[in-house]
């Protein structure tokens, strides 16, 4: 029995999120059906986590067990011949039997893209939150520094989050500007449901002057309070998972 790890890249625009579900098409379902075609037997993927509807990924990690004896390249090339154009396997490799994509993960890197432009940009509409106002980056950076460390992020999760504990560790929050694009890179040990998007929504409110930077420290200080809105999904991308 071989344990195969896949690294997947996808545009999440057309999907109801990663997870297989009864009322929408999940990316997991598409990949599992392609694996079934390739291997001739049903396969269940174990993923490093879940992305919501409209969220993208460059480095989603998933593994599965199979009795077929194929070289790893055959999984990559074979699956890419079966998958739709908005999903692709970037890498496939055989790993130790005990490897688990979710439980062995040590950290994740998410990137959120903001497009700052007075006129809407059709080219970036699928991959960014478009804002037509200036942002105070100094205030946003000040606020973001309060997120780093181990805190109670109760205020930064949305309804339906089933996590047993709301304490998480954020390693870093970095900003990078490229023309009209602003990237917010968040690295951490793990994340609650919509946690990064709520962080970004709160940072944007601070950048727009709708709340002071000090609000962020209060939100993570005791895990209570009212955070900002949940940022739109299309700006978020799972970049990498560490093991």
From TrEMBL:
It holds the Pfam family PseudoU_synth_1. The keyword Phosphoprotein does not apply. The keyword tRNA processing applies. Residues 9-104, 143-243 form the Pseudouridine synthase I TruA alpha/beta domain. SUPFAM superfamilies: Pseudouridine synthase. Its EC number is 5.4.99.12. It catalyses: uridine(38/39/40) in tRNA = pseudouridine(38/39/40) in tRNA. InterPro entries: PsdUridine_synth_cat_dom_sf (IPR020103), PsdUridine_synth_TruA (IPR001406), PsdUridine_synth_TruA_a/b_dom (IPR020097), PsdUridine_synth_TruA_C (IPR020095), TruA/RsuA/RluB/E/F_N (IPR020094). Substrate binds at residue 110. NCBIfam families: hisT_truA. Formation of pseudouridine at positions 38, 39 and 40 in the anticodon stem and loop of transfer RNAs. Belongs to the tRNA pseudouridine synthase TruA family. This is tRNA pseudouridine synthase A. It comes from Geoalkalibacter halelectricus. The gene is truA.
């Amino acid at each position: 029995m071989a344990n195969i790890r896949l690294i997947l890249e996808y545009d999440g625009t057309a999907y109801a999120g990663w997870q297989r579900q009864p009322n929408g098409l999940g990316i997991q379902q598409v990949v599992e059906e392609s694996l079934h075609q390739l291997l001739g037997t049903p396969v269940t993927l174990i993923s490093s986590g879940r992305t919501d509807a409209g969220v993208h990924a460059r480095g989603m990690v998933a593994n599965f067990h199979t009795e077929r004896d194929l070289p790893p390249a055959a999984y990559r090339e074979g699956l890419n011949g079966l998958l739709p154009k908005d999903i692709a396997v970037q890498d496939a490799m055989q790993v130790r039997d005990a490897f688990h994509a979710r439980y062995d993960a040590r950290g994740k890197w998410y990137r959120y893209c903001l497009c700052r432009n007075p006129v809407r940009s059709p080219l970036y509409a699928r991959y960014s939150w478009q804002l037509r106002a200036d942002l105070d980056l100094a205030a946003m950076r000040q606020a973001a520094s309060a997120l780093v460390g181990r805190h109670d992020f109760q205020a930064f999760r949305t309804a339906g989050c089933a996590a047993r504990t709301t304490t998480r560790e954020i390693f870093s929050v970095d900003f990078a500007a490229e023309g009209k694009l602003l990237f917010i890179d968040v690295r951490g040990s793990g994340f609650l449901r919509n946690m990064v998007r709520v962080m970004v929504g709160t940072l944007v409110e601070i950048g727009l002057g709708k709340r002071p930077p000090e609000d962020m420290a209060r939100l993570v200080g005791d895990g209570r309070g009212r955070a900002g809105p949940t940022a739109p999904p299309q700006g978020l991308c799972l970049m990498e998972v560490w093991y």
